[in-house]
Amino acid sequence: MLSVNAFSLSLDGKTFIKDLSFEIANGQVLSIMGPSGIGKSSLLHFLSGSMSPNLTITGEAFLNDHALHTKATQDRKVGLLQQMPLLFPHMSIMENLLFAIPADIKKSARIDMAQHALEKLGIPDKANALPKTLSGGQQARVALLRTLLSKPDYLLLDEPFSKLDPALRRDVRAFVLSEIQKANIPALLVTHDPEDAKAMEGDCLELKKEAI
Amino acid sequence: MAWGYQRPFFRKIEALLSPILAIPHAAIAIGLLFLLSPSGWLVRIFSPWLTGFDRPPNWITVQDPYGMSLILALVVKEMPYLLFVMLATMKSIKAQESLQVGQALGYSRFTLWRKVLIPQLYPIIRLPIFIVIAFSLTVVDLALVIGPNTPSTLAVTLLRWFNDPDLSMRLMASAGAVTLMLVIVVVLAGWELSHLLFSRLTRAERSNGKRFGLTDSVLRLGVVLGIFALLNAFVALALLPIWSLTRRWRFPGALPSQWTWDNIDRATPLLMELTSNTLTIALVATLMACVISLVMLETKRHSHSADHGKQHVFDWLIYVPILLPQIGFLFGLHVLLIYLNLNGDLCAIIALHLMYVLPYVYLTLKGPYLAYNEEYLWQANRLNNRPWRNYLSVKIAMLKPAIFTAFAIGFSVSIAQYLPTLIAGEGRYSTLTTEAVAQAASGDRKQVGSMAMLQAFFPIMVFWLAQFIPPRWTKWRLALKKVFSRRNTSCSV
């Protein structure tokens, strides 16, 4: 379970978000909506531990009652999925997947895991192909599986569907939700699109501009 | 440039520019020597049927007292560089759009260039022009090969004075080096001042609405001269291999009457030694330059994200070795080397080369490196937290094309260095460049031809490899991996 306590965000004395608190259970997706510039991305940065220094951020985050906000990014075991799939263009799809699997797992087991992921995507023949040969939807799915293979404790989704065309979006959304449920980890989705939030079947939080 | 831009065949010239840029100027100078000298190829093809000569005429064509041949060599060498820089800036000033708008208004192509594009272009290419001016004023190896002899240029004379057995000449040489500095400053100031005057005078004329003008034909003349210069460069280069394969080539013949591999064969031991010296120095210096550049750029990136927009101190410091006259600067360094007891050491040569290679490598890498999408690296670190390994296997691997190009440029800069090698090496280490320049006047064209050819060959080769390898690297790597994994499974079965 991921919980955030009294999160506040301000820049140059101007407050954007004040005392935001929420909880996300394992296997659930919480959607956060709101206009651009409201500080959605900063919330994700707060949770992933890569805040820019000129923002003033206060608040606490806990994962299963362990403090998260005091840890460095590399100790948090966070998975982040963005608009761009960010597959490494110079590695084959197999290598991209293997890259994420923790190194302490035995080599043959790692290859089995990656192969299994490829079969799940229905592209077992593409193991040695380069990412650019995949369609946008396939790339998005590979990126999600790659992130999940790194065994994150929680998942952050930063508008991962916005670059996909509408027909594809539905499939990818369903795929993402079912994979998150299988992995049984809490996930936070930031989006513009109400359809995204609806498809995730979880709670939806709407941030509004505060009149100051 | 004005004439050819946007025309289809110009693309091909663009592709040809980079090899000319890569070729050391000494090789071009030697090629021009072969082409233009009284017994050179230009006279040969017109003899004896047109000129009636059956022996070389008694003219002074190269090394003429007015330095015409030196000027020509400098034009041939520097024009591609300026062309290259201009092409790179064309996009940033939206030249294509301006031309379209202007032509729709009925302006002729050349008038547009003069009235619209050149005034925009100039501030951007001012620094490259300054570099060219400073280089032309201080160049030693080109002037030695093809420049006037008695008296020679100030830079060459300084070299002679510095090497004079009479030690008191060194004082004079030092004074001369300071003078040369002043000359550069004065010339640059004069250039800038005349530009200022010129743009003041033509400001009103720019908006007088005339669509055509007299200057159009002046620009047209420039086009002819430019093409002539480029052509010269290619023919000069083609002559290098011909001479190195010649056995007999009597004067009026347009081509050698007998061909042979003997020249190269005979010179092989010497060439091998020169080549290994050259390549060692170039490879070590360029590799070091690449690593240092990467470190510098990474620090720059960090400080860049901290305070936006400010010019980093590296950006200014890096130009110092390029803009300072080599001849004065290097003799100062030589004194330091003697003081440190490092003179004549291979390390000293590499260090001096590094000083000249580094700016070019840094400037080439800067754009792509700072434009790199850092998200890839962050994502890699989130997936798999091994920052050092990820830096190499993700960021560096993705920047491969840029790093290869920077390496090729650094390599060709190192190959071309004449004075740094001569001064730090004190004659104990010769490279293809120093040896070719030293022998250019010897008259043994066959041997000089082979040296200059090798000197031109390596940079072209490295440039070609730098273009050829990166796009195919991943394909090859995956193919290799496949072969190995197949072998492994067959072994285990």
Structure write-up:
- The complex is a heterodimer of chains A (212) and B (493).
- Chain A is an alpha/beta fold and 212 residues long.
- Chain A has one domain (2-206): P-loop containing nucleotide triphosphate hydrolases (Rossmann fold).
- In chain A, 33% of the residues lie in helices and 25% in strands.
- Chain B folds into 2 domains: 1-260, MetI-like fold (Orthogonal Bundle), CATH 1.10.3720; 268-493, MetI-like (MetI-like fold), CATH 1.10.3720.10.
- Helices cover 76% and strands 1% of the residues of chain B.
- Chain B has helices at residues 8-22, 25-36, 41-45, 68-90, 95-104, 109-138, 141-146, 154-162, 168-206, 215-244, 262-306, 313-317, 320-323, 326-339, 346-371, 375-383, 387-398, 400-416, 419-425, 432-439, 445-492; strands at 246-248, 258-259.
- In chain B, strands 1-2 form a two-stranded antiparallel sheet.
- The longest helix of chain B has 48 residues, at 445-492.
- Residues 1-9 of chain B have low confidence and may be disordered.
- Chains A and B meet through strand 6 of A and helix 16, helix 17 and helix 21 of B.
- Chain A: Keywords: ATP-binding, Nucleotide-binding, Transport.
- Chain A: Residues 2-212 form the ABC transporter domain.
- Chain A: This is ATPase.
Helices and strands of chain B, in N-to-C order? HHHHHHHHHHEEHHHHHHHHHHH
Number of domains of chain A: 1
Q: Helicity level of chain A, as a percent range?
A: 25-40%
Secondary structure: number of strands of chain A: 9
Oligomer: heterodimer
Q: Give the percentage of residues in beta strands of chain A.
A: 25-35%
- How much strand content do the residues of chain B show? under 5%
Largest sheet of chain B: 2 strands, antiparallel
Query: Any idea of the CATH topology of the largest domain in chain B?
Result: MetI-like fold
Identify the CATH architecture of the largest domain in chain B. Answer: Orthogonal Bundle
Backbone CA Rg of chain A: 18 Å
Strand order of the largest sheet of chain A: 6-7-8-3-9
Number of domains of chain B: 2
Strand order in space, largest sheet of chain B:
1-2
CATH superfamily of chain A: P-loop containing nucleotide triphosphate hydrolases
Protein name (chain A): ATPase
Organism (chain A): Marinomonas pontica
Keywords (chain A): ATP-binding, Nucleotide-binding, Transport
